Amino acid sequence: MLSITPIYAALLAILYVVLSFRVIGQRRSDKISYGDGGSPDMLKAIRTHSNFVEYTPFALLLIVMAELQGAGGLLLNLLGLSLLAGRVLHAYGFGRSPQIVILRQIGMLLTFAAILIAALANLFMAT
């Protein structure tokens, strides 16, 4: 039974909705129905949202597989916290004008760490 990963999945889903509303708000503000309309602010909102979508599901899949294989709570929480913090920091750093590059970089580092460690944990537990 899953008890840890659903907490991080839920928190990340809330962040996904926040980022989605930021795209919608920017569309309304710039009066753009699709695409970026050549607006740098619209492009930034779209890419912040898209980056989240590109990394988060895969990372969560690895974490849930680790939990299903019996990974310990400490590892699962470290993976979940790393992913959550990474996604929050990246979205905040990337979404600001001007960007806060260090937050963006730390966010990606935490995200990649969660993915890599979860992948290695799954390989180790599967063998």
Separation of termini? 21 Å
Structural class by SSE content: mainly alpha
SSE pattern, N- to C-terminal? HHHH
Tell me what the CATH architecture is: Up-down Bundle
Broad CATH class: Mainly Alpha
For the record, the count of structural domains works out to: 1
Per the principal axes of the C-alpha atoms, what is the gross shape? elongated
What is the overall number of helices?
A: 4
The CATH topology label is Four Helix Bundle (Hemerythrin (Met), subunit A)
Residue-averaged pLDDT: 97
Beta-strand percentage? under 5%
What is the CATH H-level superfamily? Answer: Membrane associated eicosanoid/glutathione metabolism-like domain
Helical fraction: over 70%
Please give a structural write-up.
With 127 residues, this protein is mostly helical. The protein has one domain: Membrane associated eicosanoid/glutathione metabolism-like domain (Four Helix Bundle (Hemerythrin (Met), subunit A), Up-down Bundle), CATH 1.20.120.550. Helices cover 82% and strands 0% of the residues. It has helices at residues 5-30, 40-68, 73-95, 101-126. Helix 2 packs antiparallel against helix 3 (73-95). The two termini are 21 Å apart.
